[in-house]
Amino acid sequence: MLARARVARLVPLDSSSFFSKRLASTKSLKETLQEVIPAKQEQLRRLKTEHGQAVVGEVKIENIIGGMRGLKAMLWDASVLDPIEGIRFHGHSIPDCQKVLPPAPGGKEIIAESMLWLLLTGQVPTTEQTRELSRELAEKGELPEFVETLIDSLPATLHPMTQLGMGVAALNRESSFQAAYERGIKKSEYWTHTLEDCINLIARLPVLAARIYRNVYRPGTPLPAINKDLDLVGNYSNQLGYGDNQSLTEYLRLYIALHGDHEGGNASAHTAHLVGSTLSDPYLSYSAALFALAGPLHGLANQEVLRWQLAMQKEIGDNITHENIKDYLWKTLKSGQVVPGYGHGVLRNPDPRFIALQEFCNTRPDLKNSPIIQLVTKTSEVAPDVLKEHGKTKNPYPNVDATSGCVLYHYGLTEFKYYTVIFGVSRALGALTQLVWARALGLPLERPKSYSMDALEELIKK
Ligand SMILES: CC(C)(COP(=O)(O)OP(=O)(O)OC[C@H]1O[C@@H](n2cnc3c(N)ncnc32)[C@H](O)[C@@H]1OP(=O)(O)O)[C@@H](O)C(=O)NCCC(=O)NCCS
């Protein structure tokens, strides 16, 4: 059963607009989706039948050999990334989301539930709907015993991302989509089973991730039970062992919500989409995505940033001046390494997610005065000019990872290798949203055409 908000008891009968507002706000996530899907299906049908031959852009050899950069070839409705403005979730910028999306009880930051609702339905949920979704996720969070046994049997030396990917893949024994597919359901019913799997997976991911953290970094400590009155990330923070740190919990809420989606072309989201297009269930699709996320150019960047900033801190000591940082930046670049936390495949401006996290730091004196955060801030004041002078990267500005891991470090969550796991908990929001929509829209198997270099040369001759 998917979330259903309780119907309010006191509805003034003489106020029809208030009444319709109340009704709208009591719809469950599934009911809301059921309402919005037909219009989207119709939009897709029109695009396909009436505009199927319209040209969107051209394909250059530089696109083919350049990792398909700039190639407009994917459908992804939940978020659009503008190179200058940054990410928008169904048209809402990050500051818009911070204004309208309901936070956790007693909290201020956006949370995974309200972001998930927005991504899935394109609508801003009411507080009541958000709370009901939190409760549903808490109720569905328990891991099957065999997955607990599997995770507990893994060596602590196995990378937490490998463990997370394995755990998620193993959860597919529970897949409603797979079972229904084997029974032979109609294509029009695919999305409801996919939604069920996605909600179950989102509910279980943090529990799985917390179990991995405990096994690897806090062996022998008891894992608290899920608290049905807490939101998804409130529970995650609690299970990690940081539940009494409200600042860190709020930070995790913000980070996980903000990082939930970043268009379709990034490696993890794209992987989930590609694997899902074969009708693999959401567990297998997202497990594949997690292994894409584990790469240093993608999800591993936040730990790389921290490692690099700490090495810088060690070298320059307390004398944090722009000049010293500049020297260190050049030393990094001259040794042939990239400056972690800078640059982006699409963005050509400072990442609004970086700005939101920096604002979070600025409003909290402990973070504002933290040596590592001060170093991050000072580095961001110098690095763009150095990178411009270096002249290689198309985007010399900080991305979200320039600061994300450093805040965790400040709060005592110092296990670098774990940081990508938190990213993995977050990115499920967008990648799984897209799987639901891919099934609702009946999107086909993804199968781009590839060329050999000889074939390209032939093409040029012609
Ligand atoms: C994010 C990233 C992978 C994007 O890659 P991209 O789309 O290929 O970026 P560009 O088109 O700007 O790359 C052009 C050149 O600039 C270099 N470059 C890009 N970012 C750089 C950085 N932060 N420091 C130094 N050089 C950089 C690239 O390595 C490339 O060099 P090459 O031609 O010798 O191969 C890249 O900017 C990077 O490696 N950044 C550091 C890691 C990071 O922060 N990742 C998190 C992303 S959210």
TrEMBL record:
GO terms for cellular component: mitochondrial matrix. One of its GO terms (molecular function) is acyltransferase activity, acyl groups converted into alkyl on transfer. PROSITE patterns: CITRATE_SYNTHASE. One of its GO terms (biological process) is citrate metabolic process. Its main location: mitochondrion. Pfam families: Citrate_synt (PF00285). It comes from the Eukaryota. The active site is at 298, 344, 401. The keyword Mitochondrion applies. Keywords: Mitochondrion, Transferase, Transit peptide. The keyword Mitochondrion applies. It is found in: Mitochondrion. Signal peptide: none annotated. Belongs to the citrate synthase family. NCBIfam families: cit_synth_euk, PRK09569.1. PANTHER family: CITRATE SYNTHASE, CITRATE SYNTHASE 3, MITOCHONDRIAL. This is Citrate synthase. It comes from Hypsizygus marmoreus.
